[in-house]
Amino acid sequence: MVVAIVTVAIAGIAAAPAPPAQPMVFAAYYIWYADGTHPSAAWRHWTHPDVVRLHAGDHPLARPGDPPLASNAYPLAGLYSSRDPAVAEWHMRLARAAGIDAFLVSWWGRHQETDEVFAEVTLPAAERSGFKVALLDELAQFHHDDEAYARGLADAVARFKDSPAYLRIDDRPVVYLYQVAANPGLTPASFAVVRRQVEDRAGPVFWIVDKVAHDHASRREDRRKGIPSDWLDVAGIDAFGMYGTFSHFRADRYDQLIGEYRHLAGQAHAAGRRIVLPVHPGHDNSRFRADPYRMPRRDGETLRDYLRAATDAGADAILVTSWNEWPETTVVEPAANWDDPYACLRILAAWRGITFEPPAGPPVGSEPGFPATTAEPGGHPGR
Questions:
Q1: Residue 282 is part of which domain span?
Q2: How many CA atoms lie within 13 A of 206 on its CB side?
Q3: Element (H, E) at 207
Q4: 373 lies in a domain?
């Protein structure tokens, strides 16, 4: 692995920053998928036990040999393995063409092989592609021992941080700590333990902490959520963010979002921190949930409204959630059942002021171009 330091700066952002004219763009990227050849976890995350119970396993896009699919969309590249370097490189070429700056990669340590896949496939693919990646650390929420968890994260950051493909802001490697909306796993005290362990081993880190909760101090409709006051002054946090509005407040239109987003950005900026706001194309988990949440795509207008709201609110960066979380159908990765498989990427590129030109692909063997069929509930994204 070539070792070098490459800095990716967000122009115009500093303590108590004036937001940039256009925020940087990250996308949540999942490397937990297995195809049918995996020796112990065939079709991992492509299927779910409840799909058969709820839908008899039927799917209008299923190909011979497919498992009961947990998503309401079907990837243009087929049901791929995250270990396939050709798929990873194609994803990164697509993301660059759409104006995405980096993937924040869902990381669970050794669980579901994500550490191994990141080291052996994702990071090398980014190096070859001239793309940027960083850890979106989900163990920050799902762990039971702060010290043991922190040692594992410290080891990972130390191993990965000097790759030319690892995302850096202000000359520091980026780590995003994921938290759920209710009963978050980190307290200010436990974050201090994690920060000390990691930085003692790997040096200074650019920390983005997913930390949004009910704002009980305000009853105003446009201020239902906020960054908890005990977190606003925690040392070492560079930016606050949240993965999605799905648990915080369910919305899909600009006028439902802008007040919430301005409030969150105002809190972060007043504390001298930056804000990373989520952007969604849609959501539909009805293939595997009896109580599904469907966020309609509205022929691409949902994605456009989120982009406009995050920009108008003064986001320092946005997190597209997601590139490829297929079971929740929040994807912008090309889907075979959309009239234009690249519709979401065209919307992102247009927002960035560039023209999207699809790179060659999908990889050989993924049968690109098979006929479009039923659009997902709520409509397909428009051109």
A1: 24-351
A2: 24
A3: strand 206-210
A4: no
Residues facing 214 on adjacent strands: 225
Query: What digits encode the pLDDT tens for the residues 189-246?
Result: 999 999 999 999 999 999 999 998 865 555 455 456 889 999 999 999 999 999 999 9
**Which tokens is 180 given?**
């759920």
- Please check whether residue 113 lies inside any domain of the structure: yes
Report DSSP state, residue 152: H
Residue 28 to residues 147, 192, 223, Cα–Cα distance (Å): 26, 25, 26
- Sign of CA pseudo-dihedral 310, 139, 179, 31: positive
**Alpha helices, DSSP H only, in 172-221?**
188-202
At position 235, the amino acid (one-letter code) is: A
Is residue 191, in this structure, part of any structural domain at all?
yes
Residue 176, in any domain of the structure? yes
CB atoms within 10 A of CB 62: 14
DSSP state of 128: H
Query: pTM of whole model > 0.85?
Result: yes
What three-state secondary structure class fits 35? coil
Backbone angle region of 5, left / alpha / beta, with phi > 0 → left and psi within -120 to 50 → alpha: beta
Count: domains in the chain: 1
Q: What is the CATH number of the domain that holds 179?
A: 3.20.20.80
pLDDT one-digit tens code per residue, 16-39: 455 557 899 999 999 999 999 999
Q: Are 276 and 318 in contact (CB under 8 A)?
A: yes
